[in-house]
């Protein structure tokens, strides 16, 4: 929590106190220091062992602190009702400050900041920490609240409202002979207390040289969901299987059951509200690269993410991939040319330890993404997951598609030791049409990491059906990898083997047929279909190491590879050795950072000349107020006279995230230019209007509204907001912003001060203390107002017309200390004042405030000349204040009213 007073003001007050204390002891209160001795009200934070009231008014004197609203403070601290009754009398009295026990500005010593709690249940002790602007309370241990017991289920935030939220992303790319446009979006609309409408869509369009074009629009999901309590749900509409492997639908990781998308009803158990500590986990995706390449990851025809990777063994970052169990297609591009595609199974879901049985039932008509052949077939599916023990679970599923039935059985095992972990999965599928499949995976992690995966698929594609109902294909695959830390670096070893079969034909009468010579005399033979095997095997081993020296970091990698393929158009063997070296220098400045990169890649394939690639690049990053900006450039070349230059930029602000890249390639055959651009943002429409913000993939939101100010010259950042794992958000005065967050997940939102260094006033967040927990269902929005408090600090000297200092004058604009013996003043105002109003004895004066110099948030006005002022000319908003009225009446400048006269007589 930031201090509620500017640093300069606290320093001035501290100096005044140090000068005033000896005078008070010797001869009473000197003129001008009456307010310091009598005390003044400050906005302070009241804390009780981790709990906070936020900023509340506290009367502070030289010896005591006193809460002006003790009952509200006790309630804000969430103390039991009997504790509030017992402590209220003591907390209503002035309490000793005990400031000498506070920790001093980062130099904490043992025992500071603490007082032994009293034994009496009705006693209260206080410790006023001026450095933090907080009052710490110490009460009897029986009243100190402990941590609340964790509930099994989350509760949706009580102040959430139904709203429409939509996240969207636009991608544009092109080059010589083609242009591509892709857009995707996801929307959620809250309905009733526990229901919502959800839809996500994709659109793609490509234009090629010669006028050929493709265009496709898919409405992947469009359904209404209603949560039946915290354990069951009902969905109706168009939906796919992804939710079945997510907190929304449970832990069903069916990877071989054929139904992908349908239109109908789904009923089952949900894990969305379970308060589980385990994070959502995903199976690793590893790609083996012989050269630096671009890798596009697809779910069917939908592009999930693009990676730019170095040669070697690379594990893809799948944090942005959608939940579910599906097959990922990896398309590998080298120098902009597609060299191969790989299919890999992917499973991203929860790893909950909940002991309850999970189940689901669904039925309707099939609605596939990639084919119309089986659309409108009647389809039904059901599944059950039974935890046998904490580390063993069994899952079974059945599906009926157009009269054909399929069943899948899966066994998950996990055992965690003190320093190691073992996971294993065994699953099998069988269909009534003869299709069958097996998948097995084993992983072991200790100091080293071992992974083995085996898959065997025999679908209808093995009987030469190009568009089979089961979607299993016809393939065998095996992959194994090991990672081991060695000598300050990491060693990797990986092997993959994949065999598929493509359709072919055999002409009878060829080969060893004894009737081969009579082909011209016999009727023509019908070609017989057959399977042609295609086999590929890849070995790869590498060792990498990284070191840092101050601003410099050096990374190196050396490795060998061997790839063998047969049965295809590129039969043969490829082997070689490679070496990578990169040097990076990161420099940080006041307004940003700069990173320079130099790289060298040497590759020696078998029987060919070496391939040497070199590169140099630089990236500039800057965070300014509420924006993040990045510009990057890179030059690349090799010994085959191929060169490229790339320039890219990225901007993140309150309206979204935008990036663009332009590349130029130069080679012997000519040159070409490629470009790409992307923009993602989100919006929410609630009861208070439209909110806009950045973010992708979130179906709930936090709507932030920062208070504005009447001062048009006061601009800039006013607060910082941190929500979950999002980048820290810097918010301006009067700004409205949407922070998209994931539904059915627990978040914490925390607001802090963030006044700009070049601001003309100190801007502080008021009334918002501690972190705020959030848990939202889809289509729900929480509004978070951010109240602010503005303080303008003026320092100067007040003189009358004759040039004499106005010593001991009261300042009427605000309840602040009066002028000193030389007429000096330090005044904090909640608004930007242009005139200083003073009362010296029975003289009323006004002084123009003209800023001569500004240092940080302090405005220096120098010597101001004050002229007499009639009472009638005093602004009404100042004259009608009770404090000012009392001072004017004491000097007989205005007549006392009957109410004030009676009050004075009673005193």
UniProtKB/TrEMBL annotation:
Residues 776-866 form the Pilus assembly protein C-terminal domain. The keyword Signal applies. This is TcfC E-set like domain-containing protein. Keywords: Signal. Residues 1-25 form the signal peptide. Residues 356-764 form the TcfC Usher-like barrel domain. InterPro entries: Pilus_assem_C, Pilus_assem_E-set-like_dom, Usher_TcfC. It comes from Stenotrophomonas lactitubi. The keyword Signal applies. Pfam families: CooC_C (PF15976), TcfC (PF16967), Usher_TcfC (PF17271). Residues 282-347 form the Pilus assembly protein E-set like domain. Coiled coil: none annotated.
């Amino acid at each position: 929590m930031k201090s509620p007073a500017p640093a300069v003001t606290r320093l001035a007050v501290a100096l005044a106190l140090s000068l005033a204390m000896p005078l008070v002891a010797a001869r009473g209160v000197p003129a001008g220091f009456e307010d310091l001795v009598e005390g003044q009200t400050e906005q302070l934070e009241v804390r009780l062992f981790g709990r906070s009231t936020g900023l509340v008014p506290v009367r502070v004197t030289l010896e005591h602190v006193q809460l002006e609203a003790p009952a509200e403070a006790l309630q804000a601290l969430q103390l039991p009702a009997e504790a509030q009754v017992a402590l209220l009398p003591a907390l209503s009295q002035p309490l000793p400050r005990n400031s000498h026990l506070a920790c001093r500005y980062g130099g904490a010593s043992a025992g500071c900041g603490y007082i032994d709690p009293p034994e009496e249940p009705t006693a209260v002790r206080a410790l006023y920490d001026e450095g933090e602007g907080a009052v710490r309370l110490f009460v009897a241990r029986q009243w100190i609240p402990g941590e609340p017991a964790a509930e099994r289920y989350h509760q949706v935030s009580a102040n959430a409202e139904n709203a429409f939220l939509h996240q969207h992303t636009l991608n544009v790319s092109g080059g010589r002979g083609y242009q591509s446009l892709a857009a995707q979006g996801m929307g959620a609309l809250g309905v009733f207390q526990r229901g919502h409408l959800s839809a996500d869509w994709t659109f793609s369009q490509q234009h090629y040289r010669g006028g050929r074009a493709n265009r496709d629009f898919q409405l992947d999901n469009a359904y209404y969901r209603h949560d039946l309590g915290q354990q069951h749900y009902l969905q109706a509409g168009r939906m796919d299987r992804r939710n079945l492997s997510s907190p929304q639908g449970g832990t069903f990781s069916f990877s071989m059951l054929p139904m992908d998308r349908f239109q109908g009803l789904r009923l089952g158990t949900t894990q969305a509200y379970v308060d589980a500590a385990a994070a959502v986990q995903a199976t690793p995706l590893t790609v083996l690269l012989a050269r630096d390449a671009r890798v596009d990851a697809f779910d069917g025809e939908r592009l999930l993410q693009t990676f730019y990777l170095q040669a070697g063994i690379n594990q893809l970052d799948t944090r942005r991939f959608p939940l579910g169990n599906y097959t990922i297609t990896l398309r590998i591009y080298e120098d902009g040319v597609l060299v191969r595609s790989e299919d890999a199974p992917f499973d991203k879901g929860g790893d909950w330890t909940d002991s309850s049985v999970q189940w689901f039932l669904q039925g309707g008509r099939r609605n596939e993404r990639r084919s119309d052949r089986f659309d409108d077939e009647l389809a039904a599916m059901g599944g059950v997951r039974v935890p046998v023990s904490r580390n063993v679970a069994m899952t079974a599923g059945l599906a009926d598609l157009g009269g054909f039935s399929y069943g899948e059985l899966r066994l998950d095992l996990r055992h965690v030791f003190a320093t190691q972990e073992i996971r294993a999965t065994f699953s099998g599928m069988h269909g009534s049409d003869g299709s069958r499949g097996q998948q097995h995976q084993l992983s072991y992690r200790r100091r080293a990491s071992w992974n083995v995966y085996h898959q065997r698929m025999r679908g209808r594609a093995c009987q030469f059906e190009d568009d089979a109902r089961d979607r299993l294909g016809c393939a065998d695959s095996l992959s194994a990898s090991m990672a081991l830390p060695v000598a300050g670096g990491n060693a990797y070893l990986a092997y993959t083997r994949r065999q598929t079969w493509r359709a072919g034909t055999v002409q009878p009468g060829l080969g060893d047929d004894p009737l081969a010579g009579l082909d011209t005399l016999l009727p023509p033979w019908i070609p017989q279909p057959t399977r042609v095997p295609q086999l590929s095997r890849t070995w790869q081993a590498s060792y990498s190491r990284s070191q840092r020296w101050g601003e410099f970091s050096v990374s190196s990698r050396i490795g060998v590879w061997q790839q063998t393929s047969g049965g295809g158009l590129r039969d043969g063997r490829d082997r070689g050795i490679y070496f990578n070296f990169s040097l990076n220098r990161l420099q940080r400045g006041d307004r940003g950072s700069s990173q320079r990169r130099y790289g060298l890649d040497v590759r020696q394939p078998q029987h060919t000349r070496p391939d040497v690639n070199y590169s140099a690049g630089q990236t500039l990053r800057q965070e300014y107020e509420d924006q993040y900006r990045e510009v990057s450039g890179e030059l690349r070349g090799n010994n085959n006279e191929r060169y490229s230059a790339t320039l890219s930029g990225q901007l993140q602000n309150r309206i979204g995230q935008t990036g663009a890249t332009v590349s130029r390639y130069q080679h012997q055959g000519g040159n070409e230019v490629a470009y790409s651009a992307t923009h993602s943002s989100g919006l929410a429409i609630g009861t208070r209007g439209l909110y806009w913000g950045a973010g992708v993939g979130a179906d709930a939101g936090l709507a932030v509204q920062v208070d504005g100010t009447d001062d048009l010259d006061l601009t800039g950042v006013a607060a910082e907001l941190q929500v979950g794992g999002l980048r820290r958000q810097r918010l301006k005065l009067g700004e409205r912003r949407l922070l998209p967050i994931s539904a059915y997940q627990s978040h914490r939102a925390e607001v802090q001060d963030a006044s700009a260094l070049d601001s003309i006033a100190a801007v502080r967040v008021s009334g918002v203390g501690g972190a705020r927990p959030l848990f939202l269902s889809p289509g729900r929005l929480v509004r978070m107002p951010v109240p602010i408090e503005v303080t303008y600090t003026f320092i100067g000297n007040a003189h009358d017309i004759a040039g004499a200092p106005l010593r001991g004058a009261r300042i009427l604009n605000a309840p602040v200390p009066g002028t000193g013996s030389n007429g000096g003043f330090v005044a904090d105002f909640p608004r930007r004042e242009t005139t200083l109003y003073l009362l010296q004895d029975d003289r009323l004066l006004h002084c123009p405030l003209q800023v001569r110099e500004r240092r940080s948030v302090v405005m220096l006005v120098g010597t101001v000349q004050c002229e007499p002022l009639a009472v009638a000319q005093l602004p009404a908003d100042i004259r009608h204040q009770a404090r000012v009225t009392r001072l004017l009446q004491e000097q007989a400048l205005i007549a006392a009213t009957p109410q004030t006269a009676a009050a004075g007589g009673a005193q």
